[in-house]
Amino acid sequence: MPCEGTRLRFPSCPTARTPFPLVPCAVVPSRRRLPRVGARMTLAAGCCQAESGPRCGGLRQRRPRRPAGEPSRPSPPPRAWAPLEAPVGVWAPLAFVTLLSFASRFYRLSEPPHVCWDETHFGKMGSYYINRTFFFDVHPPLGKMLIGLAGYLSGYNGTFPFQKPGDRYEHHNYIGMRGFCAFLGSCLVPFAYLTVLELSKSLSAALLAASILIFDTGCITLSQYILLDPILMFFLMGAVLSMVKYNSCADRPFSASWWFWLSLTGVNLAGAIGVKFVGLFVVLLVGLNTVYDLWELLGDLSLSLVTLGKHLLARVFCLILLPLVLYTAQFAVHFAVLSKSGPGDGFFSSAFQSRLIGNNLHNVSVPEHLAYGSVITMKNLRMAGGYLHSHWHLYPEGVGARQQQVTAYLHKDLNNLWVIKKHDSNTDHLDPSCSVEFVRHGDVIRLEHKETSRNLHSHQHEAPMTRKHFQVTGYGINGTGDANDFWRIEMVGRKAGKRIKVLRSQIRLTHLATGCILGSSGKTLPKWGWEQVEVTCTPYVKETPNALWNVEDHINPKLPNISLDVLKPSFPEILLESHMVMIRGNSGLKPKENEVTSKPWHWPINYQGLRFSGVNETDYRVYLLGNPVVWWLNLVTIGLYLLMATCAIVAMKRGVQLTAEFKELSEVLLHSGGKIMLGWLLHYLPFFMMGRVLYFHHYFPAMLFSSMLTGITWDTLLKFCAGRLSCSMGRRVYTYGTLALMLLIVYSFYLFHPLSYGMVGPMASDPNSPMTGLRWLESWEF
Questions:
Q1: Helix, strand, coil percent values for the chain (each to nearest 5)
Q2: Span 231-259, pLDDT tens digits
Q3: CA–CA separation, 237 vs 701, rounded Å?
Q4: Are 756 and 733 in contact (CB under 8 A)?
Q5: Using CA atoms in the order 152, 154, 157, 161, what is the torsion angle rounded to 10 degrees?
């Protein structure tokens, strides 16, 4: 059986050294870890050496002394690469690829000097943090907070409006925010290099993966602008690298380095989720890795149950509790900084808005409990649901009954005011002679519109916009109507007889005659409805925010006022509410007019890009599109990896006698490549199940994994091929194969680099354009 060695030995050339490093090639037990990068690989008994000589009992024999007068043997030829364990062999290439990464991301960073694509959103949100103005976004706050902090530290004052793409920055300092994103985007290359190096123990594989990311036009473009994507991918790759590093410390559990990498994994997980919810995919990857790790430990009979318990608790603390604490702390900072009323108020409940300085509910005093005779406004709890509203205008002919319109209106208005009365009495409860009577859960009430004196009414006419829902109108004269004006008021999660609180109680109004529930459909009425939001009575009983309301304004001179500070929600309540609003907003995202969207199957084939800047020939155009050679190489590699992995598994299962070197390569392919392949699947397949609008840039986290997989797979394939050839031929195949791949990547970047760094002049569809021959697909719009 071939013996173990640190360099691959070709069968026909026992003295040859190949230019690529290889892990010790003995058959390893399942818990054995590959040696750390940077550590010296000690030669085990029976280890192969470059020089020839007999072996005895698994130990290398002492080399016989050279007789006097015998000519000295020539020294072995120098290796093409320094050994992996030599510091210069690892860190010099790392410094080189890091330098190239920063140079490619910071080149022409100031161009174009105007707002590009989603900078209009995330740059504006950075300004909101600087001005402490509350806003709403469908993503968690960490990415925007870091952008705002970068702008603040670089001298940006938060006054640029970021109204639309194409607006020039003029004298405003935007380079700090772009530079921050470019810095984090540049770090992806060394992270990928170190991750692949740790997994494969191959310098060539690490360099190939790093080259792919350095020279990918899509990664460069996405890193040069004020966006969340480079921040998300920074934490994502940081989590993967930390996970791989703490796995490599498995032979030294509870050491300082083990704790450091385990804790850093948790920190990066909190960062990834704190930027976008898709960070949950890397959480799932780390979780599966941890479960596998613990399962392996459980099978190690040399470990006591106490030690197993320590391993479990360490992972619970570092990978669950620590990320949760850090994630929660991000929202605590978010709420503390954004203390002023702003454009995001209307997406949240009235109780939430009462926290914000400048909001009309801030520091206001109102009666706490609802009573008959009170004048109130009711706000729908769906996102941007609006206030229950009516006006003198009637529904037009052919739209249900020709009665007074009832709508939801997003702004404060006198037509939002309603008087709450008993269903069977028209008594003025504000009369001093009448005692105060509180409204309780389960009461049957009547709501009279204060401005028009018509009652809130419903019947079995169809709603104007939503089929199978009932129309809601204003009916009656001076409060006198019919039985279709009666509603049962109920609080969510409360028992009969409980009083109804202003702001805090979530209430539902059930129509007594038909059993339908008052709600806002969210649909905009035509011009006859003043483009306000439709209100309907739905016969489908569901616990949705559309059918829930809360009392916001409350006027009753017979009741004592209390400060709304008493009714302000606690931190856990606003944390929960903000997540509910973000989730609803995310699932409800729809494409804007003329916006380019895509489908998940488009992404790996680089089917269509995104315009970041410019449309016409005279514009400075930037187009987000992956380097086609890189992306199609990645796509081919996924199929190649599956084929190679299948062959390796079948060969091992069938008991095929493989050399120790080939067994070790199979271990790298299946275990190391398998982790990266799993990461790609977890970051790509879930998008097929998403109902929200999707864009091309959503694929880039998955692209990071496919690029690392390309480095590992092609390096392993070339080693397999080299091992089947003679010594000199195998070395040439491996060396020239690796160089050919790198040169192909560099040359393709030379061809397509204008996509990232800007184009001016004729479009690619024009025969006079220098990009004409590069428009390989009709769907590319540069």
A1: 45, 15, 40
A2: 999 999 999 999 999 999 988 999 999 99
A3: 9
A4: no
A5: -100
Is residue 124 classed as helix, strand or coil in its secondary structure? helix
Domain identity same for 641 and 731: yes
Same domain membership, residue 438 and residue 369: yes
- Which sign does the torsion angle of CA 519, 522, 528, 531 carry? positive
Q: Would 70 be classed as within a structural domain? A: no
How far is it, in rounded angstroms, from Cα 708 to Cα 714?
10
Q: Which domain holds residue 402?
A: 365-563
Q: Which residue shows structure tokens 């009983």?
A: 541
The pLDDT assigned to 591 comes to 63
CB 549 within 8 A of CB 379: yes
Residue 517 in domain? yes
188-200 vs 175-186: helix axis angle to the nearest 10?
10
553: which 2 tokens? Answer: 């304004």
CB 623 within 8 A of CB 611: yes
Q: Measure CA 734 to chain center.
A: 38
Domain count, the chain: 2
Beta bridge mates, 519: 536
Strands (E), 384-443: 387-394, 404-409, 418-422
CA gap 632, 637 in Å, rounded: 8
Would residue 365 be called left, alpha or beta, if left means φ above 0 and alpha means ψ between -120 and 50 degrees? beta
Nearest Cα residue to 224 out of 114, 143, 99, 105:
105
DSSP SS3 for 346: helix
532 shares a domain with 387:
yes
Nearest-angstrom CA–CA distance, 79 and 20 = 9
Note whether 528 and 622 are same-domain residues.
no
Burial class (CB in 10 A: 0-12, 13-18, 19+), 631: buried
Blockwise average pLDDT, block size 10, the chain, 782 residues: 38 38 36 40 33 32 43 42 50 93 94 89 94 92 95 92 89 94 96 95 93 95 94 96 93 93 96 94 95 92 92 95 96 94 83 86 87 92 83 90 91 90 81 85 92 93 90 89 91 81 89 92 86 90 82 90 80 90 76 71 90 78 91 95 92 82 87 94 92 87 95 92 82 90 94 88 76 80 75
* CB-based contacts of 287, cutoff 8 Å, min separation 6: 319
- On whether residue 678 sits in a domain, the answer given is yes
Residues 633, 522, single domain; the answer is: no
Cα dihedral across residues 217, 218, 219, 223: positive or negative? positive
Q: How many CB atoms lie within 10 A of CB 695?
A: 15
Look up residue 172 and give its amino acid: H
Orientation of helix 700-723 relative to helix 203-214, angle to 10°: 140
Nearest to 55 by CA among 64, 44, 47, 65: 47
Which residues have a Cβ under 8 Å from the Cβ of 302 and sit 6 or more positions away? none
- Look at residue 731 in the predicted model and tell me its pLDDT: 86
Q: Cα 59 to the chain's mean position, in Å?
A: 54
d(CA 592, CA 343): 19
Residues 6+ apart with CB under 8 A from 433: none
Q: Read off the DSSP letter of residue 410.
A: S
517, 618: one domain: no
Do 78 and 18 meet the contact criterion of CB atoms below 8 Å apart? no
Q: How far apart are the first and last CA of the chain?
A: 58
Output the domain CATH number for residue 411: 2.80.10.50
In 3-state terms, what secondary structure has residue 379? strand
Considering the domain architecture, whether residues 317 and 450 belong to the same structural domain is answered as: no
Q: Report the SS3 class of residue 362.
A: coil
**Structure pTM?**
0.81
Structure tokens at 36: 């750390």
E runs forming strands in 525-634: 533-538, 549-555, 561-563, 610-613, 622-624
Burial grade of 652 (CB within 10 A; 0-12, 13-18, 19 or more): middle
Q: Does residue 245 sit within a domain?
A: yes
User: Are 532 and 662 in the same domain?
Assistant: no
Sign of CA dihedral 574, 577, 583, 585: negative
